[in-house]
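1st attempt posting a full record on here, be nice pls
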Amino acid sequence: RYDAGKDGFIDLMELKLMMEKLGAPQTHLGLKNMIKEVDEDLDSKLSFREFLLIFRKAAAGELQEDSGLHALARLSEIDVSTEGVKGAKNFFEAKAQAINEASRFEEEIRAEQEEKKKQAEELKQRKAAFKELQSTFTQ
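the predicted structure (as tokens):
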């Protein structure tokens, strides 16, 4: 919902807008610190995996009480007593589907990288075969 660029990441400005809409605005430095705390790949954006890391850290009690991430985790929790079991079910099914989509995306990237490696190896072999053929004509 908050990924305005539709690139699969939450950047600084999108995080700022999200925190404002959730009623917990943060300073620019606070937002940067929020991203830095869970930014595993150091791209200064939050991937879905890094976003979920916020909630994992919150559940483990690893977030400081006054941090923006703690506020985000609190604001994004689902209360089964108010939402009902069906609401919680939909919430968790949506999260699971998003995780599956992310792993499918990672699988596609791996396949693409393997294909590039294969093409590079074939090119290398063709060049070697050409040089060998060329050497027979230059002798």
